[in-house]
Design brief:
- The complex is a heterodimer of chains A (about 300) and B (about 325).
- Chain A has 2 domains: about 50 residues; about 240 residues, Orthogonal Bundle (MetI-like fold).
- Chain A contains 16 helices and no strands.
- In chain A, helix 2 crosses helix 15 and helix 9 packs antiparallel against helix 10.
- Chain A starts with a helix and ends with a helix.
- Chain B folds into 2 domains: about 70 residues, no CATH class; about 240 residues, MetI-like fold (Orthogonal Bundle), CATH 1.10.3720.10.
- Chain B contains 16 helices and no strands.
- In chain B, helix 5 packs across helix 16 and helix 6 runs antiparallel to helix 12.
- Classes of the chains: A mainly alpha (about 300), B mainly alpha (about 325).
- The interface between A and B is large, with 93 and 100 residues.
- Chain B: It comes from Paenibacillus terricola.
- Chain B: Belongs to the binding-protein-dependent transport system permease family.
- Chain B: It is a multi-pass membrane protein.
- Chain B: Keywords: Membrane, Transmembrane, Transmembrane helix, Transport.
Chain lengths: ~300, ~325
């Protein structure tokens, strides 16, 4: 009886509150959040509109949400360039290969340091964790890559980043939460550690591996600094992000000492312009990640909360 | 030796027994598969993460690229002295240190305040669909590169960009008075802070929203029965509820004060705002790889890492002493 009374009392309160104060509160929240969405989305929609607009017309300005003179010329031009075609290929390759290597290697090491009986468990764990606190820095890293003969190679995109300590920790936490009985039964069946890892642990870890794969793909796709640092003299190993960075750099400095694709729009002024090429490249360089992340939302949310708070 | 016995032997008893070392190797042999699965990556770790730390020796030499390690001339702390006292370098280096601390400080405060505010607002949204849409949209900028973000920010802040148009529209400035935002050096920290918030506000709410969702709903019901409105419930229940998470993250982030980032400053920086945009990482790049002064640049990088290490270690220690879970 008392319960019932309190419930009805609650209802009364909330209905009375929601009359004015709550409504104003609600309106403020909706306005603020809508503004946030506009501020977040507008630049992308605007860039998309410019990239889909005829270049000569874009120069007049005043394009906001929709293209004024719809045209696919910018995209045709960009993809007719061998540089962009090749850069897309390298970007895709490094994202795919880098992710596969990272996921497999991180999961394997994470499995070994999750085994309580492993005698080197502490040693391996600490060896990895120390590198979170201390790193050689830019110059020693550059000299190492140079001495290893990795300058101007594709391998430089993959090798230095095989295992991230953060990834290692979240996979290990995940494996430790798996029921012991499953691993034990595999052991009784006579499966060795590698077979247990491949046949049982990997499939069970799919959710956390999806998280790691997403983080790895995004960081591979988005990185440009290693291209700039190690491979800037080799055009065949350039990536989309680095091509875009060169375009931005060029439109920043008025002196166009650097030539090549970044400036090539200027000559063909009827069809394309630096402005429209820049917008088009921005879209090409960001759309793949924008398309995949909403589908993996539940995975990265989980990964962030497991790794970020508990470790 | 049977399997069970080896599994239950603890390390402490291992050392006391005379057969300890032998037992260790017996177990190592039994666990050779685990060793094979992990040790190659420890070797990788040594090459790619520990060898560069050995590279710090360059900071104590007058490094000549052509010479062998044994032939290099050792000069002690000469390059560190240059960083802090030499007329030509110390001004720029100390400026870089100031810019690093200022920008990471701004980032820390703005990042926390904005993300917590957004998490509180999202928590008050009753329409689930609307909440989901806002969340998904707010994560978007985290998934684009700083190159793309810098391009967007430059376009937005350009004299013919949308911010100037907006200022003209509300009448703050007239036509012809457009601001060259990225050309005003003293505005750079603010622009950097705003850009970082724009890029990561949504992403940073994830942790807070998870913390909010673990608050016991009974507390809200009790407060509601006592007549507390939504603002009061936010203030007295939600905020205290996420306090532990906020404190741990705050302490951990103080550990990263020397890491103000590299990409936004490098990509948005230019000759006009260099006094406020150049941080330690850019200083290292400039003197190391553009002017080939390897020892000086390594010394600057080493200084950063050592200070970072001390900060991180203390932060971790404080978090542990406060009874919160450490990050590691």
């Amino acid at each position: 009886m008392a319960n019932l009374a309190s419930v009805s009392k609650t209802r009364k309160f909330s209905s009375r509150n929601s009359s004015l104060g709550d409504k104003i509160f609600d309106i403020i929240i909706y306005v603020v959040l809508t503004l946030l969405m506009v501020v977040t989305l507008y630049p992308f929609i605007n860039t998309l509109a410019v990239s889909l607009n005829a270049a000569a017309d874009s120069m007049k300005g005043g394009i906001h949400l929709l293209p004024r003179q719809f045209s696919l010329e910018n995209y045709k031009f960009v993809f007719n360039e061998n540089t962009v075609y090749n850069a897309t290929l390298i970007s895709v390759l490094r994202s795919v290969i880098g992710t596969i290597v990272t996921v497999f290697a991180s999961a394997m090491v994470a499995y070994t340091i999750s085994r309580p009986e492993y005698v080197l468990r502490k040693f391996v764990t600490i060896a990895f964790i120390i590198t979170m606190y201390i790193n050689g820095g830019l110059i020693p890293n550059f000299l190492l890559i140079r001495d290893l003969g990795l300058l101007d190679t594709f391998a430089v995109y993959i090798l230095p980043g095989i295992i991230g300590v953060f990834n290692l920790i979240i996979i290990r936490s995940f494996i430790e939460q798996l029921p012991d009985s499953i691993l034990e039964s595999a052991r009784i069946d006579g499966a060795g550690d590698f077979r247990t890892f491949v046949n049982i642990v990997l499939p069970l870890c799919l959710p956390v591996l999806a998280t790691v794969a997403l983080f790895s793909t995004v960081s591979q796709w988005n990185s440009w600094f290693d291209v700039f640092l190690y491979n800037s003299s080799n055009e065949h190993l350039s990536t989309l992000q680095y091509e875009l960075q060169k375009i931005l750099q060029n439109s920043n400095t008025t002196s166009s000492a650097e030539s090549g694709f970044a400036n090539s729009g200027a000559g063909d002024s009827m069809k394309v312009s630096p402005l429209s090429i820049r917008a088009t490249m921005t879209i090409v360089a960001s759309v793949p990640m924008i398309i995949i992340y909403p589908f993996l939302q539940k995975y990265f949310v989980k990964g962030m909360t497991v790794g970020g708070v508990k470790g | 030796m049977d399997n069970n016995a080896t599994l239950t032997t603890s390390p402490s008893t291992l050392e006391k027994k005379p057969t300890g070392l032998k037992l260790f190797f017996t177990r190592l042999l039994q666990q050779r598969m685990l060793v094979l699965m992990s040790i190659p990556f420890v070797i990788w770790l040594v090459i790619f993460k520990y060898v560069p730390i050995w590279g710090w020796t360059i900071a104590f030499q007058d490094y000549q690229p052509g010479l062998k390690f044994s032939e290099q001339q050792w000069v002690g702390f000469k390059h560190f002295k240059i960083l802090f006292t030499d007329e030509t370098f110390s001004d720029q280096f100390l400026r870089a240190v100031r810019n690093t601390l200022a920008m990471s400080g701004i980032n820390l405060i703005l990042g926390f305040v904005s993300a917590i505010t957004l998490a509180l607002l999202l928590n008050e949204v009753r329409k689930v669909a609307f909440k989901r849409v806002v969340q998904t949209v707010s994560y978007l900028p985290h998934f684009i590169s700083w190159v793309v973000a810098a391009g967007i920010i430059q376009t937005t802040l350009a004299p013919d960009g949308v911010i100037n148009e907006l200022l003209k529209w509300i009448g703050v400035i007239d036509k012809g008075q457009e601001y060259l935002f990225l050309g005003k050096a003293e505005w750079f920290w603010g622009i950097f802070g705003a850009s970082s918030v724009w890029k990561d506000i949504g992403w940073n709410t994830i942790v807070y929203l998870a913390a909010i969702s673990s608050i016991d709903p009974a507390q809200y019901e009790a407060a509601e029965m006592d007549g507390a409105g939504r603002l009061r419930r936010m203030w007295y229940i939600t905020l205290p509820g996420i306090k532990p998470v906020v404190i741990v993250l705050l302490i951990m982030n103080i550990g990263y004060l020397m890491e103000s980032g590299f990409e936004p400053q490098y990509l948005l920086g230019n000759g006009m705002n260099v006094d406020y945009s150049e941080n330690i990482d850019i200083f290292v790049l400039k003197y190391g790889l553009q002017q080939f002064n390897f020892p000086l640049a390594t010394a600057a990088g080493m200084f950063k890492t050592v200070v970072s290490f001390i900060l991180l270690f203390s932060a971790n220690h404080i978090a542990k002493r406060m009874g919160q879970e450490r990050l590691f």
